[in-house]
Amino acid sequence: MSGGPADSYTAVINGPQVQTPSGISVHDAPVRRRPTPWRRATPWFLAALVVVAIGLPTAAAASHVIRVAPPVGYAHPLVNETLVNLTDTPAYSPAYLSTPQNSTLELHLVNVGMYTHTFTLSKIPNHPLNTSWTPTELDAFFNANGSLANLSVPAGGSVWTNLTFNATNSAGFDSFEFVSVVPYQFQAGMRGFLNITSTAPGLGLEENTSVQGSSYLFIPDVLDANSSHFPVNVDVLVTNLGDFAHTFTVVPQSNVSLTPGNYSSYFLTHPPLVSVNVPTGDGATVWANFTVPASGVYEYLCQVSGHFAAGMFGYLYAGVPVPPAPPAPSTAIVEGWVLIGSGILLGIGIGVAALASFVGRFPPAPPSGHGGHP
Ligand SMILES: [Cu+2]
User: Fold this and answer.
1) Among 26, 140, 170, 244, which has the highest number of CB atoms less than 10 A from its own CB?
2) Using an 8 Å Cβ cutoff, are 112 and 137 in contact?
3) Cα 197 to middle of ligand 1, angstroms
C-alpha cells in the first residue's frame, strides 16, 4: 500500500527537472523551481498517509472480529437447513453438524472473514484426520480418497450446497470430518464433524458435545433438548478433542447441581441417566443414548478424578428454554483498545500533516553568498 504514495512522491519531485527546457541556465533553476508550500508539505502528508495506512486496516480488522464472534458454548437445534459461518479464527461456527440418515442436509456456508476458506468434507466416516499433517499431506489424503464436498468460499462469499446421506455413503452412526484445505487453516484448528444419526426425525433428539482434555471442558457446555413431550430419547455424540480419558455422565434428577465433593456418593444412590467412557485419542467418538424422563435442567459431568473440579461439567436443557448466551467481554475490550489506538494514530497523522503544511508556508533562509537580487 505504501508503494503507491511513494511512487507519486518521486514523480512530483522529478517532474519539474525532467521538463526543464535545456536552454535555461542551471543556477536559475533552484529559484524558479522552489517548491510551493503545499508541495513542501508533501513528505509530511505522505508520512501521515503511512500512519493512516497502518491504522485503518487495524481498525477494520478489529470491528470485523467483533462482528463475527461465534456463539461459542451453545448447541444448535437438529435441523436439515443449517447455517455455517467460516471465520478467520480460523474456525467453523458451529463446528458440529448433524443430520438423520436418509436425509438431505441443506448447508449454507457464509464466509464472514477476510480470507478464503474451504468446506472440504471427508468421504471416509469415523476417520479423524491428523492435525500434524502438512498442507501437502492433507491434499494427498483428499486426492487419494476423494471428498463428499469441496467448496471454496471467498471472503464475504456465501455458498449453498445440498448433501444427501443414505445407505450408499452412510450406514448409520457415522461421523464425517470437514476441514479447510487452505494451507495451515486445518492445522490451526479449522475442522468440524458432520454426524449422521440413526434417530428418525421427530422420534427423538440428537445433540453433540466434545471434551477438551487439555483444559477440561465440555464444548459446548450447554445442550438444548427442545422437546414438548416426555419421556424423550436423547442421543449425544461425544467427541474427544484431546488425549485424556473422560466420561460423559448425566445426573438423573433435574434441577440438581452436584459438587466435586458430593457427586460420587450421590451416584451410589442415584444412578446416572447415562455414563459413557469417552475413548482416548483426538477425534475419538462415543454415543450416549439415554431417556430424559421429564422436563428440566440436567447437569452432566466427567467422573474422572479431578476433572469435574477442574470445570468439566455442563447442563442439558430439556423442554425448558436455554438462557441467553453471555457476551464475550474479553475480546471486545481488547478490540476496543485497538480501535482507540488506531484513532489516536489517525489523529497524530492529521496533526503532523496540518503542522507541516503550516510550517511549509515560510520560505527557507537564503543560502549564504547568493542574494535574491541579480
Ligand atoms: Cu474428564
Assistant:
1) 170
2) no
3) 24
Closest to 106 measured CA to CA, from 122, 83, 87:
83
Predicted confidence band of residue 198 (pLDDT cuts 50, 70, 90): low
Q: Which tens digits make up the pLDDT trace of 323-362?
A: 887 665 555 555 566 677 777 777 777 777 777 776 666 5
Tell me which residue has cell 477438551. 212
CA of 216 to the centre of ligand 1 (A): 6
CA 99–ligand 1 middle distance (angstroms): 27
Q: What is the pLDDT of residue 229?
A: 73
Evaluate whether 160 touches 108 at the Cβ level (below 8 Å). yes
Q: Which residues contact 205 (CB under 8 A, 6 or more apart)?
A: 78, 199, 225, 226, 227, 232, 233, 234, 235
What kind and span of H or E run contains 87?
A: strand 81-87
- Where is the domain boundary, 141, 176, 201? 201
Q: Which domain holds residue 101?
A: 77-201
What value does the mean pLDDT take over residues 144-150?
Answer: 94
Residues 311 and 246 in one domain: yes
Higher pLDDT, 90 or 282: 90
**Taking the CA of residue 21 as centre, how many other CA atoms within 13 Å lie in the half-sphere pointing to its CB?**
4
